[in-house]
Every structure is written in structure tokens, then in C-alpha cells.
Amino acid sequence: MAWRMTQLLLLALVAAARGAQPRISQARTDLLNVCMDAKHHKTKPGPEDKLHDQCSPWKKNACCSVNTSQEAHKDISYLYRFNWDHCGKMKPACKRHFIQDTCLR
């Protein structure tokens, strides 16, 4: 009798755990659909087919607009009145990193 109750209890735990998995996955996915609260970005992510160069990996679910992605690539941009080369000429790999960071926000 005790063995039978143990089996039923284990079966109930497994069923409950499987039922909870989709909700956990959904919660994690919801966190991916949030844009940072930034001056030049959208409030909700969405498709942007014409994102410029370094921003194109996010075109299916982007937080930046086409205009923001183009401005991020300029050496002197109106976005944050920032000059990428303010400390001297920035190496291309470093500049690419910071542009992608700007696109991702």
C-alpha cells in the first residue's frame, strides 16, 4: 500500500513539473520582448527590415528604428551627441562592439 502511494505521489509530481514548464518558458521569452527605456529606441521590439549594417542581426525583433541604426554608424551622431573617436581613432572591432551595443539597447 505504501509503495502504491509513493508511485502515485511521484506520478503527480512529474505531471505537475511538466505542466509548469511552458509557463516558465513563456516567462523567459517575455523577458526577451522588452526594450530598454532609451531616448532613441522603441517602447516594444518589432520587425525592422532595413536596419543598417551592425544592427541587422536584430531586424526580426528590433528595439531601434531604421533611423537610429543609421545614426549609430556615424562618427558624430545626433543620437547622444557623441563622437566615437573622442579619445582618438577607435579600432574597427571596438567601434563595431559599441555600435552593436547601441543597436541592442
Automatic annotation (TrEMBL):
Family recorded in the similarity comment: Belongs to the folate receptor family.
One annotated GO molecular function: signaling receptor activity
Lineage top rank: taxon: Eukaryota
Record protein name field: Folate receptor-like domain-containing protein
GO CC term (a single one): external side of plasma membrane
UniProt keywords, alphabetically: Disulfide bond, Signal
GO biological process: cell adhesion; fusion of sperm to egg plasma membrane involved in single fertilization; sperm-egg recognition
InterPro entries for this protein: Folate_rcpt (IPR004269), Folate_rcpt-like (IPR018143)
Signal peptide: 1-19
A Pfam family the protein falls into: Folate_rec
Residue ranges annotated for the Folate receptor-like domain, each copy included: 34-104
